[in-house]
Amino acid sequence: MIESIILWLLAVLVAPFFSGVILKVKAFFGGKKGPPLLINYYTLIKLFKKGSVYSTSTTVMFKLGPIISLGTALVVLMFLPIAGQDPIFSFKGDILFILYLMGLGRFFVIAAAMDTASPFEGMGAAREAYFPIICEATTFMILIFFYRLTGELQLSAYFTEGNTIELWNLTGAPLLFVVIAFFIILLTENSRVPVDDPATHLELTMIHEVMVLDHSGPDFGLIELGSFCKLFFYSTIVSRLIFPFDFGSSAIGFFVFIAGLIIVYVAVGVTESVIARYRMDKVPQFVLTSFALAFFATIITLEFIK
Amino acid sequence: MGHFFLSILIILFGGFLSLVLARQVKLMRFTAVFFLSIGCFLGLMDAVLKLIQPGIAGASFRYLNVFSLAFKMDELSGFFLVIIFAICLIAAIYSFHYMENSRNSLRTAVNYFFFSILIASMALVVTAANMITFMLSWEIMSLSSFFLVIYKHHSAESRKAGYLYFIFSHVGAMFIFAAFGIVYGYTGSFGFEDMGSLPETAKILVFIFSFIGFGSKAGVFPFHVWLPHAHPAAPSHISAVMSGVMIKTGIYGIIKMYILLNLHTALFGNIVLFAGVISGILGIVYALGQQDLKRLLAYSSVENIGIILIGLGVGMIGVSSKNPLMAVLGFTGGFLHILNHSIFKSLLFMGAGMVLHKTGTRSIDALGGLLKNMKITGLSVIIGSLAICGLPPFNGFVGEFFIYIGGFKGVALDKSAFVMSCFAIISLAVIGGLALACFTKVIGIAFQGEPRTDAAVNIDEKGPSMLFAMSILACACVIIGIFPKLILWMPVKAVSALGLGIGRVPPEPFGQMAGNITLAATIFLVSVLLVTAIRWFFYRNKTITRSGTWGCGFTQPTVKMQYTGSSYASFILDFFRPAAPLDEDHPKITGRFPLNTYYTSHVNDIAELHMKRVIVNPILFLFDKLRWIQHGDIHLYIGYILLAIILLLFFI
User: Is A296 on the interface with B (CB under 8 A)?
Assistant: First the structure.
């Protein structure tokens, strides 16, 4: 239990660092030196030191947005098995709770965006409401796949100790599809290229960034921290899937896990460097690919598992 | 049964008194609400007691010396009675201030009169113990609600809505009659009990007929066409009762028939689940496309009926594939959602009623910024929206959680059960996402931002009874969401008394799941408190300034530039274009300095479109050709009667 809490705290603390890795990779591809690796900490400290400007259009919902979005991200990490260790909390069906809790976070971020009466934020909100629908379908398809293999509906049944390697033993290649599908969800849910471009300078083309235009100071800091945690959640799962080995709670295990994490973050950075953002009406097709992959993975395993 | 009939009598007496006192408006409203509330409260207590202490109570009367009117109260009817009386009680309280604007006192009195009949007939429907009693109560229910729908009979729109509702409820009733007729043909009795002795093919036919009949009351796609017309036309407390409670009697009918027929074939489960998936997805897609707040809520009822049917379908598949856990989880999830939906949907209709009451408009795109002055209404509607999206820690999540778990149990099965379970799970996920988009639209466009038209400027919220009713329901959403154990025993009792042939239902796993939900909700609340504390810490002694919204460099923003509901939804609707065709009307923009222009759009419901093309138009054509029969000559009419009698004599 204590170990799990320490891991959870560490996860929250190091999440901004890993997001810095993406920036570094992008700078490398651009032939630039890039910001320091700890840039996100500097930004957070700067934000938390500031005061805030609130729009006269906003209500209490605007202030609730950052609180709930960080709150849900923190709870979600509590249910996540980090580095194959037991999570702080776990129960049968916890994954359903987690997925819907992320929906709650999304509801409040959208509500906070709509609160400003800004057409740009409304546009971002409409997109934020749209793409995750397809992601949810994929996620549940993947859950069906996992349930078919393990008969469990619990994150710790997939990602702790020897469970992940067991998944590979049971299926093999189809799990690769799931990894790719999950990576696509990671890109979509965390507003990365090619779905959304966090670095663009035109508000019309953004999704997540435009929704938080009016947030400032500590409120914005909370939102940023929330999105680092969210990215960390997805990356941990992908990392665990690509390095499923079980080393107990030894140091090697952690190093392998961190190596996996860095690979995922570098992959995100590379993706952002080599592809441009898709046109908005092409994005659903891209996200639907993940559903197709998860679907085929399930169909293929139907034959293996009798 | 004594208490039950007493409460029905009190309710009817209240309705009758309102007619007598029609001239003293305030007194009339007070007495009507008083008696309705007392009656509902008594009925609620009786129903809850019935669930706590099981045991079947019955009563029967002779009617016209030929038919026997029989009533029976078991756990299933007890469960539905709890919903009927609880929601009607709150709707009656709400109506006290809602009806204050009505200038025509007679109309208000008539409204209360039919409202009391509606409550009584719904209660009789779920306690009816033979076909005659059932159909009698069913028809009274349909007719009384018809008169409630045409409350504003001077407006053509309301009359059209009422007419449509009338046709649909009677075509639906014809199907139920047909189903009962088949049963009578085999058994020769009006009793419900003998239905189990039918041959299998007859059972399937009876089920399909009654599914269409009850489905048209429940609002199952494609028989839902009346629903988005009729629900907005009625006064809001009636919409709340119709959407929250009355359509559930259709669900009751489906469950009752399933139990009575006692045929555990996978076919029934597949039909119900498939209908649920289609209603669920299309219902919420159409809801997303609506600009009228109450129409949107009516379509969202179609969606929730879909979710309920998915739950029941999962349960039926569980029964037919001999998987007791899946069966119980599916049915319990469906029942929970029946209860939860009645709470949050009536809450949302009451919120919409408050908005309509104060602004005089139902158009979402004409509103905006209501949250600033309508704190309680706004907060209640936000809670209702969160609950209807199935998000934790609100009550909508609880039912969906059980349905999901039941669905996943089916994933481990083979062949058709596997396919249908996957279908159920994926569609539930998609419905959840779409509902989130739909209700962020309601909140974001109507309650947040800046007022888009004068109708929404300087709106206050008054009417203590309305605010009270909404607060109670909003609290119920939160409390059930955090402590599902408080109500979980009711659906569990009702399900275990269904007699599904799966043995005793163990209550332990349910208690455990409810405990888990409570635990998770607590963790979430604690973490939100933690973040709030952190936020408070960082905001100590900071300068907070207020200014306009950042316009991305544009310095002259107007309220018209805000995103509208139609534009918010258009992205998603594009994806569903084949099922939700869009009609657009706008003049072409020409020249460098375009003149004033307009844009209107309307999302079509394919059921409505095709029903007009395939059914209504041919029928009209046929009847047009038969017009010569109706010539107005009385002699020939007498001739028709004679001819009919002579023809009948050949058959008898």
Answer: no
Residue B103 phi, psi (nearest 5): -85, -30
With CA atoms as reference, report the closest residue to B480 among B94, B86, B119, B91.
Answer: B86
B371 contacts on A by Cβ (under 8 Å): 59, 61
Q: How high is the pLDDT of residue B471?
A: 96
Token digits of residue A113 = 């965006």
Q: How confident is the model at residue B619 (pLDDT cuts 50, 70, 90)?
A: very high
- B572–A133 C-beta distance less than 8 A: yes
> Minimal Cα–Cα distance from A21 to chain B, Å?
26
Per-residue three-class SS string for chain A:
CHHHHHHHHHHHHHHHHHHHHHHHHHHHHCCCCCCCCCHHHHHHHHHHHCCEEEECCCCHHHHHHHHHHHHHHHHHHHCCCHHHCCCCCCCCCHHHHHHHHHHHHHHHHHHHHHCCCCHHHHHHHHHHHHHHHHHHHHHHHHHHHHHHHHCCCCHHHHHCCCHHHHHHHHHCCHHHHHHHHHHHHHHHHCCCCCCCCCCCCCHHHCCHHHHCCCCCHHHHHHHHHHHHHHHHHHHHHHHHHHCCCCECECHHHHHHHHHHHHHHHHHHHHHHHHCCCCCHHHHHHHHHHHHHHHHHHHHHHHHHCC
Taking alpha carbons only, the member of A260, A214, A268 closest to residue A65 is A214
What pLDDT is recorded for position A306?
52
pTM: 0.95
Q: Is the pLDDT score of B234 beyond 60?
A: yes
In tens, the pLDDT along A154-198 reads 999 999 888 888 888 888 888 999 999 999 999 999 999 888 887
Contacts B528 to A, Cβ<8 Å? 67-68, 71
Q: Give dist(CA B523, CA B219) in Å, integer.
A: 38
User: Roughly how many angstroms between the first and final C-alpha of chain A, as a whole number?
Assistant: 37
Per-residue pLDDT, A305: 58
Question: Contact at 8 Å (CB) between B575 and B564?
Answer: no
* 3-state SS track over B573-619: HHHCCCCCCEEEECCCCCCCCCCCCCCEEEECCHHHHHHHHHHHHHH
CA distance B91 to B109: 16
Q: Which residues of A touch B372 (CB under 8 A)?
A: 59
Residue whose token pair is 């033993």: A169
Which candidate, B329, B322, B291, places its Cα nearest to that of B405?
Answer: B329
- The two tokens of residue A175 are 């799990």
Can you read off the two tokens belonging to residue B137?
A: 């109560």
In whole angstroms, give the CA distance from residue B446 to residue B332: 35
Query: What is the per-residue pLDDT across B155-196, written as a single tens digit (0 to 9) for each?
Result: 999 999 999 999 999 999 999 999 999 999 999 888 888 888
CA B365, B290, B475, B523 torsion: positive or negative? Answer: negative
Helices within B412-538 (DSSP H only): 415-441, 464-482, 485-496, 508-538
In degrees rounded to 5, what are phi and psi of residue B621? Answer: -60, -45
Distance from CA of A110 to the nearest CA of B (A): 7
- CB of B513 within 8 Å of any CB in chain A? yes
Compute the residue count for chain B.
652
Mean of the per-residue pLDDT values of chain B = 92
Give the least confident one: B67-71, B283-287, B445-449: B67-71
Query: Looking at the predicted structure, is the pLDDT value of residue B597 above 80?
Result: yes
- Contact by Cβ (8 Å): A121, A210: yes
Of A50, A61, A70, the CB nearest to B531: A70
Over residues B39-85, the pLDDT tens digits come to 999 999 999 998 888 777 788 888 777 778 899 988 899 999 999 99
Cα separation, B426 vs A10, whole angstroms: 34
Pairing between β-strand B600-603 and β-strand B582-585 as defined by DSSP bridges: antiparallel
B445 in contact with chain A, both atoms CB, cutoff 8 A: yes
